[in-house]
Amino acid sequence: MPNAVDHALRISELVAARFAHELVGAAGAIANGLELMEELGEDAGPDAAQLVNRSAGNLKARLQFYRMAYGRAGRESAGLPELRALTVGFFDHVDGVTLDWPMAPVVPTLEGGEGKLILNLAALAADALPRGGTVRIALDDERFEARASGQDARLRDDLAAALTAEAAAEELSPRTVHAHLTAVLAADAGRRLTLERLDENALALCAVR
Question: pTM of the prediction?
Answer without folding.
Answer: 0.90
